Amino acid sequence: MVPRSSKSNYTEFASAWVKMKGTAVTLRCSDGPAVLSEQVTWMMMRPKENGWTSVFSVNTSRGVTGRLLSKLGDKIIQIFEDVSLQFTASANDGGRYLCLMMQGSETYREKITLLALVKLILAPAPPVPVNSTLRLEAQVSPVFAVAGGTWLSPADVPLLTVAPSPGTLLTKLPWVNHRDNGLYTCSIHISGQSSKSQYNFTMSVKVDASPSNLRHSLHLSSKSASLAQSTVTLSCPSIHGDYVRVYWWCADCSKVLPKKVFQSDRWRNHMISTPKPRLQLQDNGENISFLLRPELDDAGQYQCEVFLNDKVYGQSTTVTVLKGNAKSSSSSLDLTCTYAMRSQVAKVKWIHIQRPNFQLPVRAVIGRLTASVALPVTPKTAGQYACTLQLKSGQTVRYTYNVPLTPTEPSAVLSALSLLLFVVPVVAVAVGMLLWRRGCCSSHVERTLSHYSGEVENIYENPEDLRQVILSQYKSDWPSSTDWKRGNSDLLLFTRMVQINNQHL
């Protein structure tokens, strides 16, 4: 005889039960009142099996009185009057159970019941050490029985729950302390159409005062040099961990304890980032890193620690920061580069990029180097200057500053041009007046001598008349006050004087 259900889907069942190992199990052949039949047969199919295994078969036509015992493997199964099965669950009892009721040669009822077994795991084993990573895990067999599930805190707050493998529900509590004590609940949701779809199992947690025994893995380290406000990548171990911490040791500080500048608990969805606002988390889902845009006071050593269960993976980055600036005075332009994390620096120097052999006046103090450029800037001192910092590891970083050639003052050029425009017309007028006077006087003398033939007259007898003629002619061509106010006096003066000169030459 082959039951109809043997050809059905492996995950089909009418009802389901979820039990823990060692607890009592009762599987009923009928959910209602007992139905008389001639033959009742119980069969079982384990998760990885493809066929049914007979548990027992009993003829019920004459009724079942008391209880019957049947042996299945190394265990005893009890059969009661309602043809139900009772036994104590063991690790291998999970699977589907089939009850067949037959009347004559026909099967008129069959029922499949799923029995799922859950195993709760607490690690590390009690007592739980303080500051350890607590793991709460529920393993359900068969795995297809689980539709989902959630771990709840003692305050019934849902915790992040993942399924690392089919049938497994896992949550973690990194860095536990006494505040994490209490009763935790795993709520398991069953697939299928069972009348009861949710089962809850609890586990008590008590954190001990003894410290955890963390194992540290290989520690990686690197060196980095950066200009102030440039981007520096702080790498973390390539581990998708439970908990991340970043410590910072300040640059050039002696006997100073590190500061915790970042911590993240992905299970509790808790993150703290202080006091480094320029530190940004980069998380691609598999591993994390940080971007830092440092100022001088951000230099130092950064150590990223990733916790996974009872192991710690570490990676550190030492950051040296270089910052440059320029300050001018009446006699010089001072170019200064300041650097932090001096223990990593091999050398620092200023150079003129276009003239590397140019000797710069330089003065140095601890953590600062200043080069002076004399003012005004000449073609020899103009150009690009660079402050180069080299680490002991060989890595370099450079700050550059461009010193332009001092331009000629525009006001001085305009003043010289204005003076030239004023002087030239004045000189021209003076020369013109002198030439005109000589020409005018000579012409007048000649005309007088030719008019009074035979008579000699002193041409300088009345010189005042001659001056009046000259002044009247000059004043008639002098520029008006309006022209002076318009700013055209120099040009008009020159024009008028040239005209006068041309008229009388």
Main beta sheet: 9 strands, mixed
Mean pLDDT across every amino acid position: 81
Give the overall shape, derived from the CA principal axes. elongated
Would you tell me the structural class of the helices and strands? alpha+beta
InterPro entries: Ig-like_dom_sf, Ig-like_fold, Ig_sub
Transmembrane segments: 412-436
Domain Immunoglobulin: 14-117, 123-208, 221-322
Keywords: Membrane, Transmembrane, Transmembrane helix
Label this structure with key terms:
15% helix; Immunoglobulin-like; 4 helices; 45% strand; alpha+beta; 505 residues
Characterize the structure shown.
This protein folds into 5 domains: 4-116, Sandwich (Immunoglobulin-like); 120-211, Sandwich (Immunoglobulin-like); 217-311, Sandwich (Immunoglobulin-like); 321-403, Immunoglobulins (Immunoglobulin-like, Sandwich), CATH 2.60.40.10; 418-504, no CATH class. Helices cover 15% and strands 45% of the residues. It is built from 4 helices and 31 strands. It has helices at 410-451, 463-476, 481-485, 489-504, and strands at 15-20, 24-27, 39-45, 53-59, 68-72, 75-79, 85-88, 95-103, 106-123, 128-130, 134-141, 146-152, 168-173, 182-190, 198-205, 207-211, 215-227, 232-235, 243-250, 259-265, 270-272, 279-283, 288-292, 300-308, 311-328, 332-340, 345-352, 362-365, 368-374, 383-391, 396-403. The strands form 7 sheets. Strands 17, 19, 20, 21, 24, 25, 26, 28 and 29 form a 9-stranded mixed sheet that branches. Strands 1, 3, 4, 8, 9, 11 and 13 form a 7-stranded mixed sheet that branches. Strand 24 and strand 25 form a beta hairpin. It is elongated and about 165 Å long. The model is unreliable at 4-10, 444-461 and 483-491 (pLDDT under 50).
